[in-house]
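WARN no homologs supplied; continuing
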Amino acid sequence: MTIRVLLADDQALLRSAFRVLVDSEPDMEVVGEASDGAEALRLAREHGPDVVLMDIRMPGTDGLAATRLISADPSLAQVRVVILTTFEVDDYVVQALRAGASGFLGKGSEPEELLSAIRVAAGGEALLSPAATKGLIARFLAQGDDGHAPDPARAERLGALTGREREVLVQVAGGHSNDEIAERLEVSPLTVKTHVNRAMAKLGARDRAQLVVIAYESGLVRPRTD
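OK structure emitted
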Protein backbone atom coordinates (compact mmCIF):
# COMPACT_ATOMS: atom_id res chain seq x y z
CA MET A 1 0.00 0.00 0.00
CA THR A 2 1.33 3.43 -0.94
CA ILE A 3 1.49 6.00 1.86
CA ARG A 4 0.15 9.33 0.61
CA VAL A 5 2.03 12.32 2.06
CA LEU A 6 1.17 16.02 2.12
CA LEU A 7 3.97 18.50 2.75
CA ALA A 8 3.22 21.78 4.56
CA ASP A 9 6.12 24.20 4.98
CA ASP A 10 6.57 27.84 4.01
CA GLN A 11 10.11 27.18 2.75
CA ALA A 12 10.01 25.95 -0.85
CA LEU A 13 13.54 24.58 -0.65
CA LEU A 14 12.66 22.34 2.29
CA ARG A 15 9.48 21.14 0.61
CA SER A 16 11.51 20.26 -2.47
CA ALA A 17 14.02 18.29 -0.39
CA PHE A 18 11.26 16.44 1.43
CA ARG A 19 9.52 15.64 -1.86
CA VAL A 20 12.67 14.13 -3.37
CA LEU A 21 13.21 12.03 -0.23
CA VAL A 22 9.62 10.81 0.06
CA ASP A 23 9.14 10.13 -3.65
CA SER A 24 12.34 8.07 -3.68
CA GLU A 25 10.63 5.45 -1.51
CA PRO A 26 8.65 2.72 -3.33
CA ASP A 27 5.88 2.74 -0.71
CA MET A 28 5.36 6.53 -0.54
CA GLU A 29 4.26 9.41 -2.72
CA VAL A 30 3.82 13.15 -2.22
CA VAL A 31 0.26 14.14 -3.16
CA GLY A 32 0.55 17.87 -2.52
CA GLU A 33 2.56 20.80 -1.16
CA ALA A 34 1.26 23.66 0.96
CA SER A 35 3.00 26.87 1.99
CA ASP A 36 0.66 27.67 4.90
CA GLY A 37 -1.90 26.05 7.16
CA ALA A 38 -4.97 27.13 5.23
CA GLU A 39 -3.61 25.57 2.05
CA ALA A 40 -2.66 22.43 3.99
CA LEU A 41 -6.25 22.06 5.19
CA ARG A 42 -7.63 22.58 1.67
CA LEU A 43 -5.23 20.06 0.14
CA ALA A 44 -5.90 17.56 2.92
CA ARG A 45 -9.60 17.69 2.09
CA GLU A 46 -8.85 17.47 -1.62
CA HIS A 47 -6.33 14.62 -1.57
CA GLY A 48 -7.06 12.74 1.67
CA PRO A 49 -3.40 12.01 2.55
CA ASP A 50 -2.39 9.42 5.10
CA VAL A 51 0.21 11.69 6.68
CA VAL A 52 0.76 15.45 6.75
CA LEU A 53 4.27 16.69 7.50
CA MET A 54 3.37 20.02 9.07
CA ASP A 55 5.73 22.89 9.81
CA ILE A 56 4.55 24.54 13.01
CA ARG A 57 5.55 28.10 12.13
CA MET A 58 4.01 29.40 8.90
CA PRO A 59 2.50 32.76 7.93
CA GLY A 60 -1.25 33.20 8.17
CA THR A 61 -2.80 29.99 9.44
CA ASP A 62 0.07 28.29 11.26
CA GLY A 63 0.68 24.59 11.68
CA LEU A 64 -0.93 24.45 15.10
CA ALA A 65 -4.22 25.93 13.87
CA ALA A 66 -4.17 23.72 10.77
CA THR A 67 -3.58 20.62 12.88
CA ARG A 68 -6.53 21.50 15.08
CA LEU A 69 -8.77 22.02 12.04
CA ILE A 70 -7.69 18.76 10.41
CA SER A 71 -8.21 16.80 13.63
CA ALA A 72 -11.67 18.31 14.13
CA ASP A 73 -12.86 17.41 10.61
CA PRO A 74 -14.66 14.01 10.64
CA SER A 75 -13.93 13.56 6.93
CA LEU A 76 -10.19 13.65 7.75
CA ALA A 77 -10.27 11.13 10.59
CA GLN A 78 -7.74 8.94 8.80
CA VAL A 79 -5.20 11.76 8.40
CA ARG A 80 -2.22 11.74 10.75
CA VAL A 81 -0.26 14.93 11.35
CA VAL A 82 3.45 14.89 12.18
CA ILE A 83 4.73 18.26 13.32
CA LEU A 84 8.10 19.37 11.98
CA THR A 85 9.94 21.77 14.25
CA THR A 86 13.35 23.42 14.13
CA PHE A 87 13.81 22.75 17.84
CA GLU A 88 12.43 19.63 19.51
CA VAL A 89 12.22 21.62 22.72
CA ASP A 90 9.46 23.81 21.38
CA ASP A 91 6.69 25.41 23.45
CA TYR A 92 4.21 24.64 20.68
CA VAL A 93 4.83 20.89 20.69
CA VAL A 94 2.46 19.98 23.51
CA GLN A 95 -0.18 22.32 22.07
CA ALA A 96 0.13 20.45 18.79
CA LEU A 97 -0.37 17.13 20.56
CA ARG A 98 -3.43 18.50 22.33
CA ALA A 99 -4.67 19.70 18.96
CA GLY A 100 -4.48 16.16 17.60
CA ALA A 101 -1.01 15.72 16.12
CA SER A 102 0.36 12.19 16.17
CA GLY A 103 3.79 13.40 17.17
CA PHE A 104 6.66 15.61 16.19
CA LEU A 105 10.07 15.43 14.61
CA GLY A 106 13.02 17.80 14.54
CA LYS A 107 13.91 19.23 11.14
CA GLY A 108 17.49 18.20 11.79
CA SER A 109 16.54 14.52 11.90
CA GLU A 110 18.26 12.05 9.60
CA PRO A 111 16.43 11.11 6.37
CA GLU A 112 15.78 7.58 7.65
CA GLU A 113 14.20 9.01 10.80
CA LEU A 114 11.83 11.10 8.72
CA LEU A 115 10.84 8.15 6.54
CA SER A 116 10.37 5.97 9.60
CA ALA A 117 8.22 8.70 11.17
CA ILE A 118 5.92 8.71 8.15
CA ARG A 119 5.51 4.93 8.29
CA VAL A 120 4.91 4.96 12.06
CA ALA A 121 2.29 7.69 11.80
CA ALA A 122 0.59 6.03 8.82
CA GLY A 123 0.34 2.86 10.89
CA GLY A 124 -1.62 4.72 13.56
CA GLU A 125 1.13 4.81 16.16
CA ALA A 126 2.41 7.84 18.04
CA LEU A 127 5.67 9.35 16.93
CA LEU A 128 7.12 10.33 20.27
CA SER A 129 10.74 9.72 21.08
CA PRO A 130 11.40 8.05 24.45
CA ALA A 131 13.00 11.29 25.64
CA ALA A 132 9.87 13.19 24.72
CA THR A 133 7.38 10.90 26.39
CA LYS A 134 9.49 10.34 29.48
CA GLY A 135 10.41 13.92 30.18
CA LEU A 136 9.87 16.66 27.61
CA ILE A 137 6.10 16.39 27.21
CA ALA A 138 5.65 16.03 30.95
CA ARG A 139 7.64 19.18 31.63
CA PHE A 140 5.61 21.15 29.11
CA LEU A 141 2.42 19.98 30.78
CA ALA A 142 3.82 20.84 34.19
CA GLN A 143 4.90 24.34 33.21
CA GLY A 144 2.18 24.95 30.64
CA ASP A 145 1.23 28.20 29.05
CA ASP A 146 -1.44 28.79 31.69
CA GLY A 147 -0.41 26.74 34.72
CA HIS A 148 -2.43 23.85 33.28
CA ALA A 149 -4.15 21.92 36.09
CA PRO A 150 -5.61 18.39 35.91
CA ASP A 151 -8.80 18.39 33.86
CA PRO A 152 -11.73 17.09 35.97
CA ALA A 153 -13.62 16.01 32.86
CA ARG A 154 -10.63 13.98 31.68
CA ALA A 155 -10.22 12.46 35.14
CA GLU A 156 -13.90 11.47 35.25
CA ARG A 157 -13.64 9.70 31.89
CA LEU A 158 -10.84 7.54 33.31
CA GLY A 159 -13.56 5.89 35.38
CA ALA A 160 -14.62 4.01 32.24
CA LEU A 161 -11.28 2.22 32.14
CA THR A 162 -10.67 -1.13 33.78
CA GLY A 163 -7.87 -1.45 36.28
CA ARG A 164 -5.65 -3.14 33.72
CA GLU A 165 -6.40 -0.47 31.10
CA ARG A 166 -5.32 2.20 33.58
CA GLU A 167 -2.11 0.29 34.26
CA VAL A 168 -1.40 0.10 30.54
CA LEU A 169 -2.20 3.80 30.11
CA VAL A 170 0.37 4.69 32.78
CA GLN A 171 2.96 2.62 30.91
CA VAL A 172 2.06 4.26 27.58
CA ALA A 173 2.50 7.68 29.20
CA GLY A 174 5.93 6.53 30.33
CA GLY A 175 6.97 6.10 26.72
CA HIS A 176 7.07 2.30 26.75
CA SER A 177 6.37 0.19 23.67
CA ASN A 178 3.80 -2.61 23.62
CA ASP A 179 6.57 -5.19 23.95
CA GLU A 180 8.06 -3.38 26.95
CA ILE A 181 4.65 -3.04 28.60
CA ALA A 182 3.94 -6.73 27.99
CA GLU A 183 7.17 -7.67 29.74
CA ARG A 184 6.51 -5.34 32.67
CA LEU A 185 2.93 -6.57 33.19
CA GLU A 186 3.70 -10.18 32.26
CA VAL A 187 1.10 -10.40 29.49
CA SER A 188 1.34 -10.81 25.72
CA PRO A 189 1.98 -7.86 23.37
CA LEU A 190 -1.35 -8.64 21.71
CA THR A 191 -3.12 -8.26 25.05
CA VAL A 192 -1.40 -4.91 25.57
CA LYS A 193 -2.46 -3.76 22.10
CA THR A 194 -6.05 -4.72 22.90
CA HIS A 195 -5.98 -2.72 26.15
CA VAL A 196 -4.45 0.29 24.36
CA ASN A 197 -7.11 0.19 21.64
CA ARG A 198 -9.91 -0.07 24.21
CA ALA A 199 -8.49 2.83 26.21
CA MET A 200 -8.28 4.92 23.05
CA ALA A 201 -11.91 4.14 22.22
CA LYS A 202 -13.18 4.91 25.72
CA LEU A 203 -11.22 8.15 26.01
CA GLY A 204 -11.85 9.35 22.45
CA ALA A 205 -8.14 9.40 21.61
CA ARG A 206 -7.00 9.28 18.00
CA ASP A 207 -3.71 7.58 18.82
CA ARG A 208 -1.10 6.92 21.49
CA ALA A 209 0.08 10.53 21.42
CA GLN A 210 -3.29 11.70 22.69
CA LEU A 211 -3.30 8.94 25.30
CA VAL A 212 -0.06 10.39 26.67
CA VAL A 213 -1.56 13.88 26.89
CA ILE A 214 -4.78 12.57 28.49
CA ALA A 215 -2.78 10.65 31.10
CA TYR A 216 -1.03 13.84 32.19
CA GLU A 217 -3.98 16.22 31.84
CA SER A 218 -6.23 13.95 33.90
CA GLY A 219 -3.69 13.71 36.69
CA LEU A 220 -3.30 9.93 36.30
CA VAL A 221 0.42 10.48 35.78
CA ARG A 222 2.29 13.19 37.65
CA PRO A 223 4.44 15.49 35.47
CA ARG A 224 8.15 15.51 35.99
CA THR A 225 9.67 18.85 36.85
CA ASP A 226 13.36 17.88 36.94
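The chain is about 50% helix and 10% strand.
OK
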